[in-house]
Amino acid sequence: MGWTVRDIPDLKGRTAVVTGAGSGLGYVTARELARRGARTVLACRSQRSGQDALERLFGEVPEARAEMQLLDLADLASVRAFALEWGDRRLDLLINNAGLMAVPYAETADGFEMHFGVNHLGHFALTGLLLDRLVASPGSRVVTVSSLLHLIADVDLRDLNSQRRYRRWVAYGRSRTANLLFTHELARRLRGRDVVAVAVHPGWADPGPPARGRRGRPTRLAHRLVAAPPEVGATPSLYAATAPAIAPDSFTGPSVLGARTPRGGPGGPWRAPWTRNARTAAHLWRASEELTGVRWEG
């Protein structure tokens, strides 16, 4: 039998931040971390959905130590405000879960293409601003949710904001490749420190409303018939955040036919070779620093 949420160890004394925790995968991830005793912060874009999620969590886990804090990854001012409010509090687990998928062209508050701005730059900035707190907590982890759809496209360093030609699925794929390149470079920079940076993908799972985007009728039908519930899709994130001896820069997802673990359990999905390109990862890191103004001298 493969790993399940029942294998999550006791997390008392640990503190976790889960972005996009108002619904779907993020909510389930936050709930299960809280269930095992972690002090859990639901980082949500909407006050209303965040409060609703927090009340729901207390209803399901009455003993939870949890709170909600506003975070809009499409606005770097909000990211900075979140980090400023965090201050010198302990942080052990940062789950970069929030995301958008295949939305029509739009820009963030700072003028970035929405997929690139939210899925990558927002989390890049958040991680950089909180990294000193993670380094200060032994055994801490940064878990970034990507997707197998990173296979659609590598990043285009000459057109990070998809200004030349916008195709929403390509833009989405590029943002998920950026997540993996970010994890690759972050893991390199954290060598010798007791912080592990890893990436995951949820498989074909219902991510919740913020990540759904707009789908055509055939896609919506296939999603209803095939997509796993958030409880399944959140399993790789929970595994990567809590399982012992997780490898830095690993990419964990639900198993597929032939894998050793059951559907939804951890497995080693195929990863495009361009997501391990050290030169591209370094270039993307430097570009992300310039665009966000966030630097970590680690």
TrEMBL record:
Gene3D superfamilies listed in its UniProt record: NAD(P)-binding Rossmann-like Domain (3.40.50.720)
UniProt record similarity statement: Belongs to the short-chain dehydrogenases/reductases (SDR) family.
PANTHER family per UniProt: PHOSPHATIDYLINOSITOL-GLYCAN BIOSYNTHESIS CLASS F PROTEIN, PHOSPHATIDYLINOSITOL-GLYCAN BIOSYNTHESIS CLASS F PROTEIN-RELATED
Organism, scientific name: Streptomyces radicis
InterPro entries found in the cross-reference section: NAD(P)-bd_dom_sf, SDR_fam
Membrane-spanning segments: none
Protein name per its UniProtKB record: SDR family NAD(P)-dependent oxidoreductase
Lineage of producing organism: Bacteria, Bacillati, Actinomycetota, Actinomycetes, Kitasatosporales
NCBIfam families membership: PRK06197.1
Keywords carried by this UniProt record: Oxidoreductase
Gene Ontology molecular function, alphabetical: oxidoreductase activity
